């Protein structure tokens, strides 16, 4: 982790257009948060949040991509979601004593941290921010419930297509092909809810059908339309 100089992480110079703080706080509180926040760069594979650690505040992704991981039986890790620019980390633990998840950078990521007391004061005096965060919680819950429902109904091919499109949605780039997916087979299988052998078999099928191409540890989505058609019977899906 590399802490940024405050002069290089000023809210007024921030390029993140969907920042919760900038969009929904008063000018007074934007200045207060700008003075109190900590802005750091986390390198690829570095932990931003560690499951079981005390809840100290909230993390806002200014730039980058992060995987959210939960530990299950026999310490098996499960990737529960992917996050991108403007998303929030640690909100599921806010109000509790310990973080229920870990957050790990998938690429070099710039993260802003705001401590508990500052967040609390900001919520009290900025009702619009509180409301919008409530809507954020609602959306995340809806997406989580939808994921459980549709994965239970999908076959393995559909699950893999869904996971590839989930990664595409979490990309900070506009929709276009080919899209490079720099995610390990283990993590991709975890998101999909299948084992790595099943994943490898389906990826080979997709490659033969010219939907994807594979080079070393990277997957390229070459035909977004074909992948989308695979999961079309499940209706509109929020990723």
Structure characterization notes:
The protein has 239 residues and is α+β, with helices and mostly antiparallel strands. It folds into two domains: 2-140, Sandwich (Jelly Rolls); 154-234, Winged helix-like DNA-binding domain superfamily/Winged helix DNA-binding domain (Arc Repressor Mutant, subunit A). It is built from eight helices and twelve strands. The strands form three sheets. The protein has a five-stranded antiparallel β-sheet. Strand 5 (66-71) and strand 6 (77-83) form a beta hairpin. Helix 5 (156-170) packs across helix 6 (185-192) and helix 5 (156-170) crosses helix 8 (224-230). The model has no long low-confidence stretch (mean pLDDT 87).
Key phrases:
40% helix, alpha+beta, 4-stranded antiparallel beta sheet, Jelly Rolls
CATH topology of the largest domain: Jelly Rolls
Query: In what order do the strands lie side by side in the largest sheet?
Result: 1-2-9-4-7
Span between termini: 29 Å
Q: Show unreliable segments.
A: none
- The general outline is elongated
Sequence of secondary-structure elements: EHHEEEEEEEEHHHEHHEEH
The appropriate CATH architecture of the largest domain is Sandwich
What topology does this entry show?
Layout: E1 2-3, H1 20-24, H2 27-36, E2 38-42, E3 47-49, E4 57-63, E5 66-71, E6 77-83, E7 88-89, E8 102-105, E9 109-115, H3 116-125, H4 127-153, H5 156-170, E10 179-181, H6 185-192, H7 196-208, E11 212-215, E12 218-221, H8 224-230
Antiparallel strand pairs: 1-2, 2-9, 3-8, 4-7, 4-9, 5-6, 5-8, 10-12, 11-12
